[in-house]
Amino acid sequence: MVSKMSSKMVGSNNLAHARRMVQQLRVEASIERIKVSKASADLMRYCGEHAKYDPLLMGIPASENPFKDKKPCIIL
Amino acid sequence: MGEMEQMKKEAEALKTQIEAARKAVHDTDMASAAAGVAPAPQVQLKTRKTLKGHLAKIYAMHWSTDNRLMVSASQDGKLLIWDSHSGNKVNAVPLKSSWVMTCAYAPSGNLVASGGLDNMCTVYNLKTPVIKTVKELDAHTGYLSCARFLSDTEILTSSGDTTCALWDLETGKQKTVFLNHVGDCMCLSLSPDMNSFVSGACDSLAKLWDVRDGQCKQTFQGHTSDINAISFIPSGNAIITGSDDCTCKMYDIRADQEVICYQDAALNSGVTSLALSTSGRLIFAGYDDFNCNIWDSLKGEKVGVLSGHDNRVSCTGVPEDGMCVCTGSWDSFLKIWN
């Protein structure tokens, strides 16, 4: 009797899990997708527009670099 | 037909439908589309600072929004707050549990959080005369892998119990639990507009969630092992993931699929962490092989490497102003590069 009960519980858990999985797949199947060509073009445009403000891409002049150790000047 | 059989059939049909829909919009891939784009310059960054102070492996770091302070977490049982410009330690927060896996800085700069094998997320106030624990968020049944503040009143967590959660910091309770992964959640990243977030897990999937309603909106497949690192591109339209399968991938949200894979036959170490430059063009990915490789996000080519650590790079971070990249390592040091 005990084993019947536990297999019944496992069975209903499996069913609940399967229902949730189908519900999730329905949500994911229903979205609108755009073409990869458009997605790529948008990303390329974003990178292009922001490139000049990207310090790691453009390089940072020593005088504007807060992390560069300032070496003392020596007067010869 | 029993309901179970029906469910199985419908699940298979839906999976086929999703694959067909993805294929229908797959008219190119990112690298091909970007063939005409000028290559990113070869990036040669120098170590500007080496931050010494931790006594054991560093597991996590996170920049403050002021672009100067940062928090790091080590299994020496401490959070350290650093002034990255001077290299000085500003604060030390002793942890109740030294098995820390993540740390986070609140956007306001008032709070930091940490968590790990204690299954809890502990939030500290840095602005009281003595640093105080303000909340211990205790409901996960697995380790805390990542935490990110939305504000001083809300925080998102990911856990080894396969769930993510949104917490109310005033009550200390979970407002929303995000259920769908079937493996340990390892990482999360908030979208720029803060309405959604993505999580990566040991089930090799990345998932997009609505922060408010708890719904999993999309699932991204392709990796063949644990996803350890994840980040939104600054535009908010794509995400980058890093995995134990030694690759990083870009998934476009609106195309609902992988659009480029960052891999190299010579690379056979897992990816532990990643961060992006402000334009999204450069990906800084930390690997188990002690290096941080720099990838051109559009063309999929390696354009540089940050070598200098004597052990695994466990965490990377770029501050909001994009002026440097920080790497943290099991060698107990953090390095600032630009």
Can you walk me through this structure?
The complex is a heterodimer of chains A (76) and B (338). Chain A is 62% helix and 0% strand. Chain A is an all-alpha fold. Chain A has a domain at 23-58: Transducin (heterotrimeric G protein), gamma chain (G Protein Gi Gamma 2), CATH 4.10.260. Chain B is mostly beta strands and 338 residues long. Chain B has one domain (58-337): 7 Propeller (Methylamine Dehydrogenase, Chain H), CATH 2.130.10.10. Chain B is built from 2 helices and 28 strands. In chain B, the strands form 7 sheets. A 4-stranded antiparallel sheet of chain B has the order 1-28-27-26, with no helix packed on it. Chain B has a 4-stranded antiparallel sheet with strand order 2-3-4-5, with no helix packed on it. The longest helix of chain B is centred in the N-terminal third of the chain and has 23 residues, at 3-25. Chain B is globular. At the A-B interface, helix 1, helix 2 and helix 3 of A face helix 1 and strand 17 of B.
Short description:
Chain A has a domain at 23-58: Transducin (heterotrimeric G protein), gamma chain (G Protein Gi Gamma 2). Chain A has 3 helices and no strands.
The CATH superfamily name of the domain at 23-58 in chain A is: Transducin (heterotrimeric G protein), gamma chain
Briefly, what CATH class of the domain at 23-58 in chain A? Answer: Few Secondary Structures
Give helix and strand order of chain B, one letter per element, not per position: HHEEEEEEEEEEEEEEEEEEEEEEEEEEEE
Q: Which structural category do the helix and sheet elements of chain B fall into?
A: mainly beta
Q: Structural class per helix/strand content of chain A?
A: mainly alpha
Q: Main sheet of chain A, how many strands, which sense, barrel?
A: none
Any idea of the CATH topology of chain B?
Answer: Methylamine Dehydrogenase, Chain H
Cα separation of the termini of chain A: 97 Å
